[in-house]
Amino acid sequence: MFIRILMALPIAAVIALPSWAAPSPFEEPIRYRRAAMVMIKVHYDRLSQMAKGTRPTTRDELQRNALYLEQLSRVSLDGFVPGSHEGDTKASANIWKEWQNFKSLGEKFQGAALRLRDASQSGDVGAAKGVLQDVTRACKACHDEYKLNAPTG
User: For this UniProt entry, which residues form the secretion signal (predicted)?
Assistant: First the structure.
């Protein structure tokens, strides 16, 4: 009988392993928002380089990057589902405690990104430069309040 129990233990462990190793239901929203933020940073950095004169600028490139930034701003809140502050994330738990404020900051970012997209239509970097500063302030306001320095998980 003792041998049967000893033989059954590894089998039970293997059967139970998937439940122990099951991915968190929050992995997908965390990956989603991380991907959105990476893409936002790519297009923001390009626009910033154009504004500083360190990147060659064409009308098409200015408009395209401003358009992509504006489009990405609209999905930036979608990955912040309740409970997804746990895991490999830099999102503060205060986001969900202060959801209305967080959402308001996200909407300010969206508005600034929309104004930047509109300002870029002329192809004039100078016209877009001032509005890019509004985008910078909107990003910083949210990150200062709700982004942790290191992942929580």
Answer: 1-21
> Does the structure show a pLDDT above 70 at 143?
yes
Task: Tell me the C-alpha distance between 77 and 29, whole Å.
Answer: 10
142 is in an annotated binding site: yes
Does residue 85 have a known ligand-binding role?
no
The CATH code of the domain at 27-146 is: 1.20.120.10
User: Scanning the structure block, which residue is given the tokens 């004169």?
Assistant: 53
3-state secondary structure of 91: strand
The 3-state DSSP class for residue 85 equals coil
Q: Which two tokens stand for residue 91?
A: 């999102």
The total of other beta-carbon atoms located within 10 Å of residue 71's CB is: 14
Q: Model pTM? A: 0.81
Q: For the chain, what are the domain ranges? A: 27-146
138/27 Cα distance (integer angstroms): 26
